[in-house]
């Protein structure tokens, strides 16, 4: 790999599961850190998920090492503590206090290593709600996102794990900030990231919309749109395409490109606000005129004119996206689990470049316990002790 690895030499130990905590570890791993995933003795549960959860493990656990440890056995808890003591960063996303009984909470680990950065991913930051069990869907419902996404009276969760993923991103951002501070002060700190607060952050624009206007924001399907041409159109053969013109210049360009000289000249449609006031009538006219034109033709017209447009795609369509393929936005990984274990598929990479390079896959999503022996040897355990641990199911 030629991409920079700014976190090379940094050791991260994560006690994580599902999406939020693993996302934090994935970001740090993609940036070059050695990330060690401590899994329960039976393996992390997302390895066995079906349906919408089937992609969780291979998506969020690339570039990591795996060790299986039974924390409920004293010897296993000691292995985990020794591993954490060797880390620069520990990340976890269990309920508050869940790791304290194993001596793996921040206060316990900080005694042995004041330079440690400890990233806690939680449902809620400390406060009245912190005892609640949170899921992405829970905080979307109580945090306004489902209300804004669904039609009026029909709250709907977003189509991906937005709070889990962004909560992990914010955890990683906090870890990076703490690392810079540690370079100045020599001391680590605890960083906390939470699903609910992440969701509220996403809702900030709508909260301020209410503060500015005094009017309750309508859900997105019924929102008071600030632009007249900003919608999905059903065209020839039932295909759909999103088309937009968000300025007076873009509206004029669109009319020229589509041959709608009458709309361009209409005195009632000269400014954006004029068009917004007549939006239902304008959209009805556009839908009628575009209904018999192919989506590909409209896409070509809008692209040539420099206008916003988007085909309506399914997730699997992105695997063949020419832009992603040409720019290295997808990378091959080997599936570690399930009926397709060992097969090569494509995954999405962290959406940044550094020095013009994408941050790629250095380590495949690890088979369960693939690095147990090497990691224990690195902690000073003799081979005989490691064998005994395996016989006692302390490690896997």
**What shape does the CA trace take?**
elongated
**CATH fold-level name of the largest domain:** Rossmann fold
Helix content: 25-40%
Structural class: alpha/beta
What this model shows, in words?
By secondary structure, this protein is of the alpha/beta class. The chain folds into two domains: 11-202 and 328-391, Rossmann fold (3-Layer(aba) Sandwich); 225-315, formyl-coa transferase, domain 3 (2-Layer Sandwich). The chain has helices spanning 20-30, 56-60, 74-85, 106-112, 136-142, 145-149, 162-185, 195-213, 248-258, 261-265, 272-277, 279-290, 295-305, 322-327, 372-378, 383-391; strands at 11-15, 34-39, 64-68, 89-92, 117-122, 190-194, 229-234, 240-245, 309-311, 330-334, 344-348, 353-354, 357-358. The strands form four sheets. The protein has a six-stranded parallel beta sheet, sandwiched between helices. A three-stranded antiparallel beta sheet has the order 7-8-9. Strand 12 (353-354) and strand 13 form a beta hairpin. Helix 1 (20-30) packs across helix 7 and helix 7 packs across helix 8 (195-213). The longest helix has 24 residues, at 162-185. It starts with 10 loop residues before the first strand and ends in a 5-residue tail after the last helix. The model has no long low-confidence stretch (mean pLDDT 97).
Summary tags:
396 residues, Rossmann fold, formyl-coa transferase, domain 3, 2 domains, 3-stranded antiparallel β-sheet, elongated
Q: How does the SSE layout of this entry go?
A:
Elements: E1 11-15, H1 20-30, E2 34-39, H2 56-60, E3 64-68, H3 74-85, E4 89-92, H4 106-112, E5 117-122, H5 136-142, H6 145-149, H7 162-185, E6 190-194, H8 195-213, E7 229-234, E8 240-245, H9 248-258, H10 261-265, H11 272-277, H12 279-290, H13 295-305, E9 309-311, H14 322-327, E10 330-334, E11 344-348, E12 353-354, E13 357-358, H15 372-378, H16 383-391
Parallel strand pairs: 1-2, 1-4, 2-3, 4-5, 5-6
Antiparallel strand pairs: 7-8, 8-9, 10-11, 12-13
Helix pairs in contact: 1-7, 7-8
